[in-house]
């Protein structure tokens, strides 16, 4: 699932291509909204909210989309070939005289009144890259369930919005705690540092797209400490990085950690 920085950059690119322009083409290829006609409306803005995308149109309408695991939005110049996937994977098309935005494999595509956006995103915690960012609230949300494993708490978008599997694993490594440690057992000051580090890293990476970097940069070839590095040496101590699934039973997600640098409970 894309992290919050990827969603932010997607929104930034969509906004640059669509905002302030009149739609000359609009096609929502989902049964519920297949007959909706947005042509002739001006796109006001494209705003990220955690991992959600809100495309607002004049007349008080918003297109809410979510990428989840496999979805993507691609922006093409007028007349350019679309190369994001076969046509049957297209879920939304928004075009103007200069650009066309094509949404592939989007699991969530819904048209709603702008006044009702909270129905789609009102459950989210403070957005790490949004104007509502509030570190104190994010920390309080994380600590509200002391028995919950850190990795699960970080992924819960109701606590703070924007963290995915990559940041979950990297943040736990930087904090020198295992992702299975109950949040109530985190040493004093660690929750605050975790939240501050998360916001700093997402902010630093939000324009990099596929060049996301978590490391100090001393080794340009190594951009991540543990994520995706199962069996390879930990950059801090040399022990083999491990991988295990972590989740609440309904959804298991890969987690990477160093058993030597991050002592404590494991999956």
UniProtKB/TrEMBL annotation:
It is an enzyme of class 4 (lyase). Keywords: DNA damage, DNA repair, DNA-binding, Glycosidase, Hydrolase, Lyase, Metal-binding, Multifunctional enzyme, Zinc, Zinc-finger. Residues 2-103 form the Formamidopyrimidine-DNA glycosylase catalytic domain. It comes from the Bacteria. Gene3D superfamilies: 1.10.8.50, MutM-like, N-terminal. Residues 242-254 have a biased composition (Basic and acidic residues). It catalyses: 2'-deoxyribonucleotide-(2'-deoxyribose 5'-phosphate)-2'-deoxyribonucleotide-DNA = a 3'-end 2'-deoxyribonucleotide-(2,3-dehydro-2,3-deoxyribose 5'-phosphate)-DNA + a 5'-end 5'-phospho-2'-deoxyribonucleoside-DNA + H(+). Residues 237-267 are annotated as: Disordered. The keyword Mitochondrion does not apply. PROSITE patterns: FPG_CAT (PS51068), ZF_FPG_1 (PS01242), ZF_FPG_2 (PS51066). Its EC number is 4.2.99.18. Residues 225-263 form the FPG-type domain. Belongs to the FPG family. This is DNA-(apurinic or apyrimidinic site) lyase. It comes from Streptomyces peucetius. The lineage of its organism: Bacteria, Bacillati, Actinomycetota, Actinomycetes, Kitasatosporales.
């Amino acid at each position: 699932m894309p992290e919050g920085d990827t969603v932010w950059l997607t929104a930034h690119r969509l906004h640059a291509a669509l905002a302030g322009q009149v739609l000359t083409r609009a096609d929502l290829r989902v049964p519920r909204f297949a007959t909706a006609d947005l042509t002739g409306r001006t796109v006001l803005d494209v705003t990220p909210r955690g991992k959600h995308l809100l495309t607002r149109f004049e007349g008080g309408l918003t297109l809410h989309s979510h990428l989840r695991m496999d979805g993507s939005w691609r922006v093409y110049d007028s007349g350019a070939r679309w190369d994001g996937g076969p046509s049957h994977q297209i879920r939304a098309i928004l075009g103007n005289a200069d650009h066309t935005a094509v949404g592939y494999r989007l699991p969530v595509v819904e048209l709603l009144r702008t006044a009702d956006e909270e129905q789609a995103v009102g459950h989210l915690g403070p957005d790490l890259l949004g104007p509502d960012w509030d570190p104190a609230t994010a920390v309080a949300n994380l600590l509200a369930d002391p028995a919950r494993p850190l990795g699960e708490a970080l992924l819960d978008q109701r606590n703070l919005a924007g963290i995915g599997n990559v940041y979950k694993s990297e943040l736990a490594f930087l904090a020198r705690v295992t992702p299975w440690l109950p949040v109530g057992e985190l040493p004093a000051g660690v929750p605050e540092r975790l939240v501050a580090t998360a916001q700093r890293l997402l902010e630093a990476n939000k324009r990099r797209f596929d060049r996301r970097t978590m490391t100090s940069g001393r080794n340009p070839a190594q951009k991540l400490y543990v994520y995706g590095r199962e069996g390879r040496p930990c950059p801090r101590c040399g022990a083999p990085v491990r991988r295990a699934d972590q989740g609440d039973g309904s959804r298991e997600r890969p987690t990477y950690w160093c058993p030597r640098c991050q002592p404590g409970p494991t999956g």
